[in-house]
Amino acid sequence: MKLVYPWLIRATGWVLKNPKLFILVPILCIYILAYGVVHDLTIRPLNKALALRSDSGPLLDFASTETIRLALSYGNWLLTKILLSLENVVKFDSLKGVHALEEALVSQNTQNQTSFVVSPLATWPNKLLLARQFEESALRALNHKHKPELINLFFDGLLKKNHLITAATTVNLYVVHNALLPPLEVLLPLKVLFFETSLAPNAATEFLKYFSFLIEDLLPIKLFNRTVVLVQMAICIAFVFRVYFCICNQHKIRSNIGLVCGWLVEVTLASAAAVRILSSYGGFQEWMSMFGPVSSYGAGTYVLAVMLFSSRTLFRTINDLAGDNSMEGHETLHKRLIRFYLGINNSARNSSDLIYKFTRFVRKWCFVDKFLSSIAPIPNSFVVLCLNLSGLSLIFGFIFALLHIFFTGIAWHVLVDKYRLILEAIVLALAIDHFLQQTFLVGIILIDLNRVELTDLLSKNPNLNDPEWNESNDTMGEIDPISSFILGLTGPLARPKPSSLRHIVGTHILKLSPVSSSRFWLGDVLSFFFWNFFCQVFITLFVLPFNLLTDDAKVVLIGHQAKCRHSYDWLFYLEVGATILFIVAVSELTFTLTYSQRQRKEIDPTATLEASSLLEYTELAKQEQTKYFECITLNKGHNIDVIKIATNSKSSFLVSADLDRNVLVWSPLSEAEKKKPMSISTTIDSLEEQTHPRFWPVNHIEISDEGNYIVLVNYRHSVIKCFERESLSFIWEINLVKETGLSTKELKPMLAFFRKKTIAGFLARRLLMKRRSGSDGRRSSVSSTASSSTITGNYPPPPLPIHEDNATENKVKDFEQSLNRDEFVMVFEKGHMITVSCTDRKVRHYTMFEDVYGKDLVSENLRVTTAKQLTTSRVSDRILCDLVNGDIIIASAVNNVWKFSRLKTSKTLFNSRLNQVLPAPASAMGRTFSSMDTDFLSIFKQNFSNSRPTEFPTPKRRFAPINHCTIETIDFVGMVVRVRDLKAELLDTQTGIIIKTFFIGHFKPGSFRVIHSEPTHCKFCGCASVETLSLVYEDFYDPTLIVHTFLLENRKSRNNICLRVERDPREIRCLGFDATTEKQYWYHDIEKWEVTDMNVVMGIRRADAKNSDESEVREEIVDRKSEELLLLRKRKSKVPSAPEKPKLNDLWQGFVVTVLNGQLLEYKIPFGEDEDESEFACVRPNVIAKYGYKAVAIAFGRKIKILYLGGRKLIESDLYYKGSTSSLKPILQPLDAAVNRNELLFINKRRRMLERRKKKEPEY
């Protein structure tokens, strides 16, 4: 038994309780260390702008070199250096003496002798000015105008005070001449220390080219430099936005902008501290000139490289620390922090990435875990840092090899020294950056995770209507505002077309994610370094004067560092103290808004783990242990791939069809050891042909609730055929074209289902009571519940248990079953509807468009876009049809006759005084609707009596809808969610009021689902309520599963989303959807998925997920070619090694997503001893279907696997009314944990009282 270090538990607990110190102390230490560089990057540019703007004196600067370059094109020219020693160059007398020497050299020019002086005082003014103005102008030029390379080239012996030059003791003058110079005559106090002419060939030309580059006097080089700098800045800005979008799309951090700003501060300070350390210990006087004599892109390369590698460890830190679920308590957060420092993965999503697998490999084979268990913890980010440094060393080694191959001599030395310094700076900066990530950034993420409490905002804004509360509520679930603005979800812009540039850019931003390891190294890193390598080599070879570097006279010292002496006074220390005070003040303000002292005090001290808690490694590593689904395998039936699976969540039977046109019926829950299916493949007998064609294709399969009937639908011939389980044969076949007189185009099915036909409630109760009471005619307690039998409701309670007289009870059940007759219902696109009685084959035809709009007012373009069955307890069966013109038609079954009405929708009546009296729901036993519904046709005709249009107008859309029109039902409360483009509307079918509008993305047709937690009682009003409501769909462009979860985060009230609030605006005690918070969770590389009634999503995805199909195909081609070459090399061997067959769990990975908190749990797929796992791995999962209330059926080739968790009870006819748990928590908890029994007590109360009474009765 291996225990976690007690000091680690104590230290992480202290971090959770004191995040402010954990953030401020490390960042302030690095800030003080890097203050010199930070001062030059922040305060110095501000001083430069102010100083140059207020400079009223002469502008002492270098002159243009155009005249000298024109003169150098003719004749032979020499270069001479004059080194003058002064007490202080910036004094007026010294400046005047240097200028006099320049004038003397130029004044001696003749026709045969010409001299040009290159001096920093070339722009000496002609007018008389004060001495103080000359001195101030010279200091401004030295401190704010000249580059460090120019200062090192012309000055030496610098004196600096508070990072500003105050004096210089020597100055260099370079004379370009075509003849020998006369003897120099200098005025005191000037002294000539060096006077030498260069012997190098083309010395004057090379010097002038290098000097022109430094003062940006060469237009092509100037344009090239500025272009490269602009490109570097653009890459830097784009990369920052890319990191921001990737963090947003992970949906793990609430304050994405705050985290990105913290990361930028961390990278900047780490880079500055590394440069400061190297410049101090490397003997560099100025850090800006440490990257060589041509350092145009050295600093940019250095900063971008640090950002690039730091982002890699940043994403890893977020994944390991934030995990898949950031909505857990402090104790779980404490364990997650311990797991982070121990290197145990907190996220199941990144477990399939190559970097994760390589990390685990390094930890195992490099004895990292053994070091961790014996000495100190090592987080995964440290291993990633080591891998980054190893890869960086390989890249620079390759660059050094290229330099050694293509360059020799001084060029090789210059370039190698430059890249060696860049490598040292990057390595040191990444080490400092890693230290800040383990402290500063971890503290920021912990505070972000703790913001879920929001105690201060709740105490300050108890009123939910307060705009300040709404504003804070929006920031809690922060999403990407840029893509929302581009796509027109927020802001003044309209929605873009699907093919427009705005739509492409907006959707691309929504799909940005951290790139894979191969793309990171082969794409980002290599392209960046080799592009920079080209720019560095080009500018160095073009500009650097190589002849002068090898000159024995050493006239021009390229790369020379001017000697400098620093001093500081009280103003400097005051400045440092003021900046530190400003940082602390801003940090205190930020902590007050995010993690205040009041919130810290409200944290339970027992929430964090104690050092003596004996926490084991196995407890922390449970998430990394291999977990398997429970599985039922259906094989020995199909010989070829299964292409269709049909199920009914209330029935245990499963129907499958394959490519051989075989249709099989399975009973997966049967106790037989070898489950053999029954074939129901058939032919079409209703066609007037000599040969009966096979019933194919089977476009739709429907199973009744008890599994007694199975209907096969064929779209091509418009034929339906019914199979009865009792007789094991087809009992009827209907040709819809002959039966209805419609064409095949008009018979496109939109919905098909089974329902129970009802009879008069009074007659049914009399018959049942008579049979139950027996010969004495007494009314027993059992007969008192006849009114709640299966004939009066769509969600009936279960039949009572059999007791004393079994024969009588069986007769009663058989008679009751005879009253329940199944009816098959189909809705077609053109508004037609048929019902077929399964027992006597009676067909009834309805025309809903004519019943609602009138026969003469129906447009030819009017059609049903989607239809859905709505079954609500104690309410008639209903069908909701969404039409192309935006109307909704409700079909209700009243005494087995379907009535149609148009539902008027409204967005403005909810919570208004006009909607105080709501109509009662339609009763299942009522004979008529309200007057508004029955009189709809007459009212409609009366409104159109004056104009009398020839047909009902169908509005035409300007653009095609982005999302396919979809309706999903919330059965137990009679509400639906209707999709309109990028909006999903929660609609009350009783009143037609749009209660809530949700913004969604572009999803694949048929992938939209609505799931919710188990309905319970509202603690205030007692009506139905749910903990969460989730919208689930798959992205249209990528295999990405997107989940929108709406829940209440006010933990003080401990209330669920009450659904009475949405219907009764007078209810003010409860909280509805207006008080909910939206959480978004994105899951990439999802292959197949389906929702269950347990508020979870189950499915399968690739075990080694790739970022794109192109990379996957490319790697398959490379692997295939490498295998062919390997076999070719071993062609002489007798037994060639065959490649190992892949297994299913190597390619496919099962998963479960709990939409309550967005947690993703990975599960492997189990196999029996007689199963060949490689047979499953050679195919993709064909189709997936929901099975029962907590399982899914997935077809792999010719076999079907039913995957589930927990017990084997998979079928529940009425889930919410029988006490079966519909939550995943009891399954994931230990076996000895208490099971929470949640059910709708207001429906089951009477039945449960009878059950208790019977248990108390003595048995005789």
TrEMBL record:
It comes from the Eukaryota. Residues 773-805 are annotated as: Disordered. The chain crosses the membrane at residues 21-38, 223-245, 257-278, 290-309, 367-385, 391-415, 422-447, 528-549, 570-591. The keyword Heme does not apply. Keywords: Membrane, Transmembrane, Transmembrane helix, WD repeat. The keyword Transmembrane helix applies. PROSITE patterns: WD_REPEATS_2. Residues 780-793 have a biased composition (Low complexity). WD repeats lie at residues 635-667. This is Uncharacterized protein. It comes from Candidozyma auris (Yeast).
